[in-house]
């Protein structure tokens, strides 16, 4: 993890957290479509060392060596490792936050304490999904091997996100229901910005 001094940007980072298959990308995609044209809301495009051929969220791909070089050159605002992959949120995100914008990123539960230190106004969001629904959705997504799915399900049980300011969105129903709840949260954050401005 790149160590930087904490800052208190004018904007707000909304981070979507939750086990593999819980619907992080689904609600982010729904909000991106719904809020298209809103220049104050940045949907952060992650850099991931995942094979570009693997169907996943729309991310930039680097191999490990290139990721490390980019990290050392200051290309990332925040990085972490999970599932044998490296993930980076590009430093352009900090520029957007410094201007008072809202940034939305898919993040890692394991890094929540570090992320909060670095972004004190962080708004963490998580998705609640029953374990059997989760398992079925990861399998149906067809992105991981059986061993990888088993590892992801094990990891799903390791984190209890016990933080008082956490927004929990139920995603056991239709994706639009969770998607709309997420858009409402973004609108609330946006209204808070306007009230302060
Ligand atoms: N509410 C839902 N109902 C049915 N399928 C869903 C729902 N939410 C997500 N999915 C599906 O479950 C799979 C995992 O969702 P995804 O958004 O990729 O999760 P994550 O980003 O948290 O790993 C995807 O195939 C997605 O289309
Ligand atoms: O610490 P955790 O909360 O377990 O998260 C670990 C990683 O898993 C997810 O990535 P990825 O998009 O590769 O996996 P997913 O789509 O299966 O969640 C998430 O965005 C983190 O990068």
Automatic annotation (TrEMBL):
Per the record, the domain of life is Bacteria
The protein's matches in InterPro entries, at most eight in alphabetical order, are given as: P-loop_NTPase (IPR027417), PhnN (IPR012699)
The UniProt GO MF terms for this protein read:
ATP binding; ribose 1,5-bisphosphate phosphokinase activity
Q: Which UniProt keywords apply?
A: ATP-binding, Kinase, Nucleotide-binding, Transferase
- Which BP terms in the Gene Ontology apply to this protein? 5-phosphoribose 1-diphosphate biosynthetic process; organic phosphonate metabolic process
Detail which positions bind ATP: 18-25
EC id: 2.7.4.23
Give the pathway listed in the UniProt entry for this protein.
Metabolic intermediate biosynthesis; 5-phospho-alpha-D-ribose 1-diphosphate biosynthesis; 5-phospho-alpha-D-ribose 1-diphosphate from D-ribose 5-phosphate (route II): step 3/3
Query: Its catalytic activity?
Result: alpha-D-ribose 1,5-bisphosphate + ATP = 5-phospho-alpha-D-ribose 1-diphosphate + ADP
Q: Does the keyword Transferase apply?
A: yes
Similarity remark: Belongs to the ribose 1,5-bisphosphokinase family.
Role this protein plays: Catalyzes the phosphorylation of ribose 1,5-bisphosphate to 5-phospho-D-ribosyl alpha-1-diphosphate (PRPP).
- Please state what the protein is called: Ribose 1,5-bisphosphate phosphokinase PhnN
Q: Which organism is it from?
A: Georhizobium profundi
Q: Which gene encodes it?
A: phnN
């Amino acid at each position: 993890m790149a160590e930087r001094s904490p800052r208190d940007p004018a904007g707000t980072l909304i981070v979507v957290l939750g086990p593999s298959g819980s619907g992080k990308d689904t609600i982010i995609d729904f909000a991106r479509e719904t809020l298209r044209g809103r220049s104050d809301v940045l949907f952060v495009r992650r850099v991931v060392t995942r094979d570009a051929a693997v169907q996943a969220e729309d991310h930039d791909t680097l191999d490990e060596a290139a990721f490390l070089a980019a990290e050392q050159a200051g290309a990332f605002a925040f990085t972490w490792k999970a599932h044998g992959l490296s993930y980076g949120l590009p430093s352009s995100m900090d520029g957007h936050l410094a201007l008072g914008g809202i940034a939305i990123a898919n993040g890692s539960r394991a890094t929540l304490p570090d992320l909060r230190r670095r972004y004190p106004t962080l708004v963490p969001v998580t998705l609640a999904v029953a374990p059997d629904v989760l398992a079925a959705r990861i399998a149906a997504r067809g992105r991981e091997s059986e061993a990888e799915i088993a590892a992801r399900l094990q990891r799903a049980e390791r984190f209890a996100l016990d933080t008082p300011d956490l927004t929990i969105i139920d995603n056991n129903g239709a994706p639009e229901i969770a998607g709309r709840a997420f858009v409402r949260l973004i609108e609330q954050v946006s209204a808070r910005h306007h009230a302060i401005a």
